[in-house]
Amino acid sequence: MASIQIIVGSMLGGTEYVAEACEQTLNDLGHQTTLHFQPQLAQIPTEKQIWLICTSTHGAGDYPDNIKHFVDDLTHSDQDLSTSKFLVIGVGDSSYDTFCLAAKNIEKLIETKSCKKIISLLTLDMQQDIDPEDLAQQWILKHQDLLY
Ligand SMILES: Cc1cc2nc3c(=O)[nH]c(=O)nc-3n(C[C@H](O)[C@H](O)[C@H](O)COP(=O)(O)O)c2cc1C
Predict the structure, then answer these.
(1) Hey, whose CA ends up nearest to atom 28 of ligand 1?
(2) What pTM did the predictor assign?
(3) For the domain bounded by 3-143, which CATH number is listed?
(4) C-alpha to C-alpha distance for 24 and 117, rounded to whole angstroms
């Protein structure tokens, strides 16, 4: 059983549903989870954790407002995440040139903190994907052996 911190970036609420669906699947697999809808770096455990980042993209490839402070703090911190692992789900719209750019950028940022990426980014396209929650849950189930 792993301890999983689910960190959510969302403006309009859609990504929160994806995160909650992931939490349900992770709990069903026996993992302990904490959801962070207003993430603050100082309050998120960093030792021997799995961080699951679920974030949409807004503006022209920007982070959602609720996650901007977290990203800023992480960027400027010398946080060592080498005992932890992470994975990212991006929610976006492929009609934008900056499709899921916030998710792509946060994936790069967390890697600079010596955190091990468990699975490469999952992108969900609101233009095409009819049931993003189900796709996210299937993705977790497919990779469940890597969550430890
Ligand atoms: C003003 C605005 C700007 C957006 N910019 C982007 C973008 O740059 N890249 C992208 O992939 N999606 C973009 N989107 C699409 C959102 O990421 C998409 O609608 C997503 O489902 C919103 O998730 P949320 O409800 O969790 O905020 C934008 C949407 C809006 C309304």
Answers:
(1) 58
(2) 0.98
(3) 3.40.50.360
(4) 22
